[in-house]
Amino acid sequence: MITWETRPCHGWWCCCGCQVSDPYSGSPFDPAATAQAVARVGIRNARAGLITPAQASYDTTSATWSALDWSVCTQPDRVTVRYLAGFPLGSDGLMQEPYRTMVARLAAAELARPVCGCDAANRELYRWQFDLSQTARGDELFGISPENLNNPLGTRRGHVLVWKQLQNLQQLTGFTA
């Protein structure tokens, strides 16, 4: 959804031949006016999260999208993007196991400080936040395999556990006759 907010009344916004009244809201000088249009988004750079929104219309008979011109001479003030990502939800509308637990462990591993909760909750969070790349602490010695140390999620216990679970989910079970 593309949103334009009220245009300033200085007159400079209408330098490209726009009409005095905003075709979407009726008046560019109404302090509560907003104009919205349906948009379609192209992905410019998925890794960096860059997108290119453009006003568009959908033709149901041909099942195609077509771009529309910017009727308002300025770019939009806001763009609302809704997207669907990730593994499909279960029939109950909740994330399926084991993904629910994995997301919770990753979130716990990423917390930077204790939460405002009881000691038991903070001990559980600390358990998943513990950095396994440490070799020693006081009189305790730790060890971690190179495979777990080099996982792409991180070196905290929650990261390592989720990485192992993801690897197990990717393995296929085969059999011979």
Give a verbal description of the structure:
A hairpin with a 4-residue loop joins β3 (39-45) and β4 (50-59). This protein has 2 domains: 2-79, no CATH class; 99-170, no CATH class. It has a 3-stranded antiparallel β-sheet with strand order 2-1-6, with no helix packed on it. The chain is built from 4 helices and 8 strands; from the N terminus they run ββββββααββαα. Helices cover 23% and strands 20% of the residues. It is of the alpha+beta class. The chain has helices at residues 99-110, 119-129, 146-149, 157-170, and strands spanning 2-5, 34-37, 39-45, 50-59, 64-67, 78-79, 136-137, 140-141.
Unreliable stretches (pLDDT < 50, length at least 5) are 9-25
Helix fraction, binned, reads 10-25%
Report the average pLDDT across residues.
Answer: 75
Q: Got a strand count?
A: 8
For the termini, the CA-CA separation is 56 Å
Neighbour order of strands in the largest sheet: 2-1-6
User: What kind of assembly state do the chains in view correspond to?
Assistant: single chain
User: Strand portion, in percent?
Assistant: 15-25%
How is the main sheet built?
3 strands, antiparallel
Structurally, the number of domains stands at 2
Shape: elongated
**What structural category do the secondary elements indicate?**
alpha+beta
- H/E element sequence: EEEEEEHHEEHH
Q: What is the count of helical runs?
A: 4
What radius of gyration results from the CA coordinates? 26 Å
